[in-house]
Specification:
2 copies of one chain form a homodimer. Helix content of chain A is 47%, strand content 13%. With 232 residues, the first copy, chain A, is an alpha/beta fold.
């Protein structure tokens, strides 16, 4: 793998946000506080439906922004689990998305990865969501730009989303490394033509669609090690 | 609801295939035979991944036909569950898709629904898959046409799929009733402009994207009753 990595000539790294930089377990805590002992079920269904809705609306050519999608997915999860959610609880749960913690290794790893490279975020989140969560985690300064799919009105893994990167960064796709913990996101980015680095934090099964990542790591710290080794 | 139904002036009905006309529990039986006591887990994950892959490939502009998608989804399900699947078992499980049973009420209900209306199938399945399963269930004669998404190279719920119906049937969308047990399929058809009839066989939670069905029933027999009542 290090021979592969050695051939990279990366001018920039683009990061997925939710689950990659920011720990969605903070959402789990909000779910558990609202619905004791059901937090995990709510949070898993909420996340699954959030992605499913993003795919369906994209395919239907009926884009709605990620805040609305997240809100509708939460309503679905509560309804399906037979949980009644008052407006204040609903709002509190949603707003947990503004205050996600970064994974512990993220700040130091980003500082290492930023040496001689531009860093950006490319996320389904709205510009407002991305600004808030990045600020709350103290990571605003490290990123050149927070790029939201809102610019193209369709969700990952549409190639129109990944095409924002060469456009905004002004460099060819093969000089851009894309970092995500979401297997489908890696698949989409690879199919588009980016270099892909899968942060497989949870030992997930690889996606089987035939666009495997260039590098698989467990944490961003490991990615910083691998890319540093590839340079020497 | 019967007032609503009374306003329909349907020239044709289009049916989803898998889960709507054909009982995918036959697939469950094949899974259980291959992996005793794990059949339900395999079959649920297989189906979920089959749909997910169909959405992702569509969004990526990388259509592969439904037989390939179904095959890749089965491989994923086995890998994730840690089950090793020899080639003969793999083939046997896949081929169960050719021989699904129709739900018990389907033949008689279709005969009633066909009076003064054209009936077609609109499905993600390949033309070969649709011809085989319809023949095996003895339903070939009742349908004017088996319409596969293969004609447009994208999956449901893309509007390009539903647009095949007014094109092929030569009538406006509002004169076509679309029947499916899959909530996302109803949502897509409604967003496109068809009349939608949700066969909610399993008491599923309604989709929350804001395109509710015109009628909800539990079986096709109930749909035949409702549409007959609306005529009188």
């Amino acid at each position: 793998m290090s021979e592969r990595a050695g051939s990279f000539n990366l001018g920039a790294l683009a990061f997925d946000a939710y689950g990659t930089l920011f720990d969605v377990h903070s959402v789990l805590a909000a779910c558990e506080a609202a619905f004791p002992s059901r937090g995990e079920a709510v949070s898993r269904l909420w996340r699954d439906k959030q992605l499913e809705y993003s795919w369906l609306l994209s395919l239907m050519d009926r884009y709605e922004n990620f805040w609305t999608v997240t809100e509708k997915a939460l309503r679905y999860a509560c309804q399906r689990l037979g949980l009644s959610c008052d407006p204040a609880t609903h709002t509190r749960m949603l707003e947990s998305y503004y205050r996600l913690a970064a994974y512990p290794e993220v700040p130091a790893a980003l500082a290492r990865l930023a040496v001689k490279r531009r860093l950006v975020i490319l996320s389904n989140g709205t510009p407002q969501m991305l600004a808030a969560v990045t600020r709350a985690a103290g990571l605003t300064a490290v990123f050149d730009e927070l790029i939201s799919v809102e610019a193209v009105g369709i969700y990952k893994p549409s190639p129109r989303v990944y095409a924002l990167l060469p456009q905004r960064l002004g460099m060819p796709a093969e000089r851009i490394g894309f970092v995500s913990s979401n297997a489908f996101d890696i698949t989409g980015a690879k199919a588009f033509g980016l270099r892909t680095f899968w942060v497989n934090r949870q030992d997930a099964t690889p996606d089987g669609l035939g666009y495997p990542p260039d590098i698989v790591v467990r944490t961003l710290a490991e990615l910083a090690d691998r890319l540093a080794a590839a340079r020497t």
